[in-house]
């Protein structure tokens, strides 16, 4: 499959125009539960869109991608969160607060975060798809790194689901195939998958979209639509779900609009909007998907003309002089197009000069959608393992070895109560290594089997190049609210030192 530069640029433009349109349509109805009946914008726009965090957060990720390229990861994005993004509502605030306390991703997305299953991650999926067109197996990895900063579980699955769909949509237009691609990257028993099954079943059975909405909100109850409403005004045909458990229902609404819109851009985003709940997110995400499939030219002029080409921001620290924020969809799209060959890499992307017109060619067999019999299977076992990883497991890469440290549970401690940390160390060299593992502990604390420990690390070439170690730490003399530990791992005869910070909170979990 070959995607010409002209077609690729057209689809990237369509993505962001669709995002702007859907966000502008849905913004006035956000946090409201009920069934609406709107078929166009409800405000005077004067040629400009409304500002929307769904889009402007991704302008920060663009800056991160331009600086760090394929190396961008959760910890890098976490630093951008703290430096460049202003809001402290919901999961945004919880993730930032955890990082200020020293809790790194994925701990930052889980600990004391009632909104970890909400919508703030899936609204950021488009940039990863645009940077990896036709390669959902790459898009989902960046989406995962993005999501774990301020989400966990369903919030993460939601971004992975849409990133896969949007990446594949650059080279695949069949709706059901794209939905199957998205489902293939998330657990079959998760709430996101249940929501998609619910609306698909309602559509197949001939229910109208209003009935499909009621079925969905009963199958995966959320609470986003009650945030701006009085209790006595809430409709009685759908239950109020747990606070913060909102990604499944809103992903379901996005898919519902896609199904019942039957390929019509305006009809689709209006149905998503008219289902209520997180309207700016559902309509914007669906607008992006349809914009990628049909390109900018496929979006009716009546939707494009009222908002123009500009981008309006809502959440950014514009006083940070290190940020270069695009002011138009055209500028945003051009900067992404220039980055894409770097993200795809020479093994996936045949790049010639722009004057000659380069093509982006997916490697044979790399795209999931070219193998229909595999659509419902895990595509990349390493990604499946990553997605199934506990939110209390943190990964580090020190070039010659990689480490996963498992906290086992939330990072809280009590006087005299031992807790066990598990280290999995993988050899990234084709030669054996002797490692020294050294614990730096607060005074009076103990660790077993000892504060300094030797470990042999085999190589993968002829053996299992991994070792697993367990250390039991017992705190004592607790007089502070927070304690910082360091695990230092040294490979004998090499200059590399892997320093792993561990932050423990003297208290009890709030969630």
- Any guess at the CATH architecture of the largest domain? Orthogonal Bundle
* Residues in helices, as a percent range: 25-40%
Q: Biggest β-sheet: count, sense, barrel?
A: 5 strands, antiparallel
- Our estimate of the beta-strand percent is 5-15%
- Would you give the CATH topology of the largest domain? ADP-ribosylglycohydrolase fold
Please count the beta strands (DSSP E, at least 2 residues each): 12
The CATH superfamily of the largest domain is: ADP-ribosylation/Crystallin J1
Q: Unreliable runs, pLDDT <50, ≥5 residues?
A: 350-358, 362-380
The residue-averaged pLDDT reads: 91
The helix/strand class is alpha+beta
**Outline, from the CA principal axes?**
globular
| Number of separate structural domains | 2
For the largest beta sheet, what order do the strands appear in spatially?
3-4-6-10-8
Distance between the termini: 47 Å
The gyration radius over C-alpha positions equals 24 Å
The succession of helices and strands, N to C, reads: EHHHHHHHHHHHHHHHHEHEEEEEEEEEE
Highest-level CATH class of the largest domain: Mainly Alpha
Number of helical segments?
17
